[in-house]
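Possible race condition, two jobs.
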Amino acid sequence: MTHAVEQEQATVIGTVGLTKRYPSVTALDALDLDIGHGVTGLVGANGAGKSTLIKILLGLLPATSGSATVLGHDVATASREIRALVGYMPEHDCLPGDVSASDLLVHLGQMSGLPHAAARERAADVLRHVGLAEERYRPIGGYSTGMKQRAKLAQALVHDPELVLLDEPTNGLDPSSRDDMLALVRRIGTDFGIAVLVTSHLLGELERISDHVVVLDSGRLLRSSATTEFMHATGVLLVEVQGRADADQLLGQALVDAGLQAWPAGRAVEVQVLDETTYDVVRDAVVDLGLGLVRLQERHERIEDVFREGGAGRVQPV
């Protein structure tokens, strides 16, 4: 299952001043985005505007003002063309319970224009890739939550789209099933060459699988950049020690007395790195206090820090 999408830095999704207002709330507020190929994570708390954005991109919801394009097509005038090129996995359960995954995908493949034989072959191929090959003839109503999520992902892929929009694909999954789903999402972008926009309110998920991350808060853009740029070094050391109940307090005070900036971080101590001698001062302080050094590492910024700085503390870090 491959896709001939060129991986140049062309815009897959673009918005300019995109706004959606309701009588009592602004769901999107003058949103400017430029999203390219690869896997792009769209992160924000519930109510941040993620689902609203996806519905506008699909032409299912009109914008109040501004504009948006998907794969070069204007969402206001070419929604039919966009939906032919895009796969969509909705957040909520929406599959018919009395139909098998195979029959559903064959039907959807034929609706997209494939002959019956090609649609059946395509359905089998997609269901194998999402891990439902052995269960494809069972009615979807008897599936577990994880299997239903896989079936929803499969229906988004059956017509060989150039872009897939995945709305909370790990919703309701246990940790093991969540890991499996994230691996599938990553493969879509890397192995299959399909552009992916995936939403989540779980920060760690998007850090793991995304090439690029877009952060929304209350319909506003907080940040849009490569995932690696979120996780740059902060110039802060995280030091964890053991040996006494108050080991972290003792170490923190010793480091301050030695002229360093240090502050508590849970059961650890964070230290501002002044120069290379900072490591020596920390090491010597731990030895002088007779403590055991558990961890000494440079702290990196996480997506969570962007929300903390922007005042959006409702997004879960894991």
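Job #2 (started ~2 s after job #1):
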Amino acid sequence: MKLRVRQRLEELIRETEQQAFELASALQAQIVAGEVEVETRGRRIIIRIAEKGSFDSGSAVLSPEYRDVMHEIRSVLALKPGSIIVQGHSDEVPINTRRFRSNWELSAARAVSVAHELMVGGVLPPSRFEVSGKADTQPLAPNNSPENRARNRRVEIVIQQGLADELSAEDKALLQTDEGQDIMRELDIAPKYLFELHPSEIF
């Protein structure tokens, strides 16, 4: 049974990787230009949008040229299952302007701008979204050079695909054992994917 569950999880991860490949193909020009990265972690697809090309420095207004990119992403997301988490990230250089008191506000505002653009046209329902600003708390690289700080200034769109509808009750029970938890850690699958609750179901 353990082997069967592991094989099923690996199959689901391969499906996620294939979907990420399709998304990367649609965004090839932006990837080549260094404006977008696409990667997978377990059952998550991460679309990483660099500040370069998408936002002016210190601004949360999405560049008009980037709306076509958002259109491509929106079209692909509409065909992919899972919740959509939009997170803004900054470097560690403090900001204090008339609009933004801190990098918390700037990173959150940028995430909101991206989420709003993805919701244009009603193709993606707001109920699929979770939006947050992380400021400089989750850097991709040390903030010790202009290049690294630029890499840390980004918005990430995470497509979080669950397991709740993909596994039997027996399989879920196995994954809650120590053996099952070891499998999920090895495959980089968060335990919360087993039981996905809609906000209305939490009381």
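DSSP finds seven helices and five strands in the chain.
Logs attached separately.
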